Amino acid sequence: MTDSYLYAAARTPFGRFSGALAGIRPDDLAALAISGVLAKVPALDAGEIGDVVWGNANGAGEDNRNVGRMAVLLAGLPTSVPATTVNRLCGSSLDAAIIASRAIETGDADIVLTGGVESMSRAPWGLPKPERAYPAGDVAAVSTTLGWRLVNERMPKEWTVSLGEANEQLADRFAIPRERQDEFAARSHHLADAAWTAGFYDDLVVPVAVDGRGDTLTWDEGIRPASTADRLAGLKPAFRPDGVITAGNASPLSDGASAVLLGSRAAAARIGADPLARIAGRGVFALDPQMFIFAPVEAANRALKAAGISWSDVGAVELNEAFAVQALACVDAWKIDPGIVNARGGAIALGHPLGASGGRLLGTLAHRLKESSERWGVAAICIGVGQALAVVLENVTEKNR
Fold this sequence. Notes:
It comes from Streptomyces brevispora. This is Probable acetyl-CoA acetyltransferase. Residues 275-394 form the Thiolase C-terminal domain. The chain is an alpha+beta fold. 30% of the residues lie in helices and 20% in strands. It is built from 11 helices and 14 strands. The strands form 3 sheets. Strands 1, 2, 3, 4, 5, 10, 11, 12, 13 and 14 form a 10-stranded mixed beta sheet that branches. The chain has a two-stranded antiparallel ribbon with strand order 6-7. Strand 8 and strand 9 form a beta hairpin. Helix 1 (26-38) crosses helix 2.
């Protein structure tokens, strides 16, 4: 067995639903992220890539089932570079990195390109196929953008509540008030804006030309630096008349792609760069479907155990903010300093294009560790239908040796 390392990461800016990136197909977004990460390692012959593992939560439309392979071809890589697409919903690109790291550690591959993409703006509507020709009744089109669809009647009703209702139940269970959620959401916007202003994302994000007039999206489109807890408090609840979940303290629908290059230590010469971080531990966990938002707690604990460390060793955490209440519940359960969590902004501000978010977390975490010289970091993400994933990174950059 050998170790696997993160060498480079890149992503597109994340666009708002029906925003600047809505006119770009998901396979084209994925190709842009692939080109962006390979531009960071110009010495690498793309033909040396042993496999591409790509995340995508939809696959029903222009994602074209195996969007990873489509993106490889569109990015101009040699046709000899294989690719697969994996779907673990919101965790798809983190799952892709986990799968790739195992392939490297077992010797099945030496260099693996991973990542993910989602265009929630372009997700199609679907129609159930009729059981027989010429049905007499009407058929409703179903949105494939987010959440449950065409639900099996044998599924218990408590499992198939909406994502928002599931978070309302979490807020009730842990008595997390609206005020804390709005404060956390405002913090996400402020930290994201400060990170962009300070240049933190300059080396991570690849600008995207958005139309034929030369316009370019360079920043994440959903950041609202003027957000305050008081302003967010004025928004109406989105799921219960007297609820606490609003459009302001939940992550938005988004478009975007991310890419992460992994390899063995021996691959450094061919890649032409030193690694940033070692994949030190992995964790997966599942519980009742409606409690998916709390699953990162145990997934991260398992990843830490696999790495042989504890929370007291961790200096940086990237936790996907699907909802503010979900992030707060996890941080409270871990009993960690909230200041180390999403210090460069989170999904509430940056966006959450489902299949791309795991790659964003890994890339951001590796760069935070390099910047701070902290040794250990955790990336974790909740996943619909009751699951979660987590990865521990160990900083191996020069100034941490």
